[in-house]
Amino acid sequence: MKRTVIVIVLLLIYNSASAQLFSKEKIKNQENFDKQVLTWGYFLGFNNYDFKFEYEQDLKDILVETSIGFNVGLVGDLRLNEYFNLRFEPGLYISKRNLVYDESYFDPSKFRTSDLSREVNSTYIHFPLLLKVSTKRINNFKPFLVGGLSTALNLSSNENNPEDNSTTQFRTKKGMLFYEVGFGIDFYLEWFKFTPSIRGVFAINDELVRDHDPNSPWTGNIASMKTRGVFVNFTFQ
Fold it and tell me: What is the pLDDT of residues 99-113, one digit of tens each?
């Protein structure tokens, strides 16, 4: 599903860029837009979050069932020069992941079918500070690369919950750090600038809150659990 969505977005970007590049139309929309020092906007989009696990022992992998989530937020853009911009893009990112364990993790005498899966809901308030590196504008579009660091507050975190997986509570940390890289294209329309972009996000710190029992089948074999994901955003400025 994730690959299909990315392919569709890439095809749409390519078709729009090709139409702009090979069109004989030379009239520039929003010709002075990029001369502004500060610009503002908002974005809508979707996400697909995953987990990257590292293990203490060589047991069967924990599987992650992902789903498509929703993004919404604001954009503040500071022009540094013709090719470099500093961007602040605070936003709300909602997602859900299901963890599926193998039966070998559990004591057969105590095993229950419900123990095999845990639902992880995440509602991130995301604060990325990004450097945008653009090419020269061609007619009414301009490709760019973007990268930077971000921090996020997980409103769905149950880090301080005294209960753990023994009572079905899979716990994650509230504060996260990420690095992000991506690309996109600015399209200068008659009344505004429209920007589709794709960005990968990768956690720097471990998100897992471990169970009280160090030998817990749910967390005992996990050395680290780090979020990674893909954002597809549509920005309007």
Answer: 999 998 888 877 788
